[in-house]
């Protein structure tokens, strides 16, 4: 994994794909530090993500998200689990491109089962989860597709299996990048 030294891994993808769960495992395997931008935002704001949305609105949350991402990008050897909407802002991409952007992709219908009982994600409140996720997916798919590495997963796989595949795929992409640079 020497290829990866000195860079950050940024996990992107829809809510509930496992960015936090898989990210922690990746950090452990690579001996990197792990950060979840939502957790940092909640700590800095001293409020839960749901309360920030309710009290300050989504735009204020997005501003905090950009600030936290920018601060984390000053460091190296981090695995960063981003929020599902991080990819929406062009400014955020200027930070994401400091490292390797890894898209965890789980089919939306499988995410519904995972998130049905969830109360922590404000964008899924009030209404039918499936149609909300599908609407977000339609708006966001093209942004996720700009990641350096795509890791497809399904909910029958353990986070450990997904993390192992992510490492393999990241290595493959880095090796081919280096090969292309030499040729
Ligand atoms: N591979 C997996 N297998 C089973 N459950 C998972 C897996 N990945 C994540 N989960 C569960 O799904 C939920 C959402 O995962 P999380 O890591 O918080 O997603 P994200 O950070 O992308 O929003 C959590 O309850 C987590 O325990
Ligand atoms: O998709 C989104 O816009 C959001 C995803 C959430 O993070 P997770 O992707 O970790 O659930 C959190 O940042 C916030 O609720 C908004």
UniProtKB/TrEMBL annotation:
EC number: 2.7.1.71
Free-text cofactor note: Binds 1 Mg(2+) ion per subunit.
Residues that coordinate or bind ATP: 16-21, 121
Pfam families in the record: SKI
Binding residues for substrate: 38, 62, 84, 140
Lineage: Bacteria, Bacillati, Cyanobacteriota, Cyanophyceae, Oscillatoriophycideae
Family listed: Belongs to the shikimate kinase family.
Molecular function terms, GO-annotated: shikimate kinase activity
Species of provenance: Microcoleus anatoxicus PTRS2
Cofactor: Mg(2+)
Domain of life: Bacteria
Protein name (Swiss-Prot/TrEMBL): Shikimate kinase
Localization annotation: Cytoplasm
